[in-house]
Amino acid sequence: METEEEFLSCSGSKRFAKEMAAASPFSDLDHAIRSARDIWLNKVDVNGWLEAFAAHPEIGSTYPSISQRSKEEQSAALATATEWTTQELVEWNARYREKFGFVFLICASGRSTPEILAELKRRYLNRPIVELEVAAQEELKIFELRLAKLFVPKARTIPSVSTALPVSHSNKAGGSTQRTRPPITTHVLDVAGGSPASGVDIHLEMWRDTQKGPSFTSRDSTQWLLLGSSVTNSDGRSGPLMDIVDSINPGFYRISFNTGKYAPSGFFPYVSIVFEVRENQRLEHFHVPLLHSPFSFTTYRGS
């Protein structure tokens, strides 16, 4: 059972933490997220929202007091920041705070500094009452990410989803419980250039509807929960997209690559790969690489 202190660390709002602790224990992550939404939108007042906003550092901050978690959540922004964009963020953060009275809130996971800066400028034009609602929704997205990390290390069970997809048979009888890397990893190769693809933005998501799996027509559904983001390094390898855990929750996962940013003149604005982890594959490793060229791509399950 999660504690009030753990929920407070996810939100910064005492009312939210107290209500979440009172509503727990939760049967699974999906149950926790549904409860969090109801509590945040219907039971926490504006003062509670502002209390949560105040717990965040300004976006793009690099000063020593910023927490490790904030650094991880803003990893893509920090990796793409330049001296010029950093200074512009400082100036626009100050303008935003002066106008609205609270820090600019955005779920920064996977977002580059130019993307965040453009969104800050766009939202600066909002009326205060509108922007308060927008910021509250962004805060809710951050809660969902942090709740996922709170639940995953405890190996909570999310019931596997029954679908008509073909069964993927593994040659492994079982997996090691002494992992040295996250259960899902990836790398990207530029097959046209014959080299690793560095600087590719990557998102890892999990489908959270335990009763019905994703389909072609639900590919843009809000049921996809972002687990983590990263940018490939000089070897084309992604940083951690999830925590190192002994057992991975069964279900559907989606890994997406921002190929349009990497190859602007190419054919694909992005590439998304959906795959299933079955109940008997909890202890296995899933390496899902992307072999990309401007006009083609392929993937496979690696080791």
Question: C-alpha Rg, in Å?
Answer: 20 Å
Q: What are the secondary-structure elements, in order, as H or E?
A: HHHHHHHHHEEEEEEHEEEE
Total of DSSP H or I helical runs spanning 4+ residues: 10
Average pLDDT level: 80
Structural class: alpha+beta
How many strand units? 10
Task: Write up what this structure looks like.
By secondary structure, the chain is an alpha+beta fold. Residues 153-177 have low confidence and may be disordered. Helix 1 packs across helix 9 and helix 2 packs across helix 3 (29-42). The strands form three sheets. Strands 3-2-9-10 form a four-stranded mixed β-sheet, with no helix packed on it. It is globular and about 55 Å long. Strand 2 (188-190) and strand 3 (195-196) form a beta hairpin. Helix content is 36%, strand content 15%. It has helices spanning 4-11, 14-23, 29-42, 46-54, 68-73, 75-80, 83-100, 113-123, 128-151, 259-262, and strands spanning 184-185, 188-190, 195-196, 201-207, 224-231, 251-257, 271-277, 286-287, 290-293, 296-299. The two termini are 34 Å apart.
